[in-house]
Amino acid sequence: MRDLTEYRVLSFDVYGTLIDWEGGIAAVLRPWAREQGLALNDDELLVAYAEGEAAAAREHPAARYPDVLAAAFRATGEKLGRPVSPQRAARLGESVPQWPAFPDSPAALTALARHYDLVILSNVHRAGFAGSNERLHGEFAAIITAEDVGAYKPADHHFEALKAALPGLGAAPEQLLHVAQSLFHDHVPARRHGLDSVWINRRHDRPGWGATPQPEEQWSYGAEYPSMEAFAAAVAAAFGRQ
Questions:
Q1: pTM higher than 0.90 for the full model?
Q2: Cα 184 to the chain's mean position, in Å?
Q3: Which end of the chain is more exposed for a tag (fewer CB within 10 A), N or C?
Q4: Are 201 and 226 in contact (CB under 8 A)?
Q5: Catalytically annotated residue among 3, 13, 42, 43
Q6: Number of H helices, E strands in the chain
Q7: What is the CATH number of domain 21-96?
Q8: Span 4-20+100-240: which CATH code?
Q9: What DSSP state is assigned to residue 114?
């Protein structure tokens, strides 16, 4: 990867990278599983959930994210042979603004904004991200959501909209660095679009894929960091060497 000081814009995946979406999803699935007599830990529940969300997003690209989440919960119930009431399904869909930020995310965004324009590139609806940003306290030059583009990553729509937004930010594609946790949702399509990226490997201390399906296409990334804090520190060091 090129020197970090050569980039002008950072685009961010939100859920999994800045916001603890696995923790937020598990907080809703866990009590349901107990009520249904399922002796599954959080990671086992998330693995059961993963393909349901990806399928719902793929099959209903124009649906709002709360409806995708509700459909994914119902699919999880079908996979595990247990019922999911409409109220339970809606509860997951409504929970997005309550999902916690990773503790290092707000400070890292503040530090990175000293050097770059920041852009959101997220599989969410506008209102959901507004609730999450009350936890992140970020200032963003552009916000691109699934609601805006009518599709969900790893489809190309987000990345096409991102490239279209760059001239307004005074940047070329080679001056953009995409920052994301999900290989499936982000690094695969970033590679397709020829964009540089860094992997925030939030699951570095846990095995498996969690709530994200295993990618079937090729992915790439220029560097790997275990946290946003580590990435922000690498940026500060790079600019400090100038």
A1: yes
A2: 10
A3: C
A4: yes
A5: 13
A6: 10, 6
A7: 1.10.150.750
A8: 3.40.50.1000
A9: T
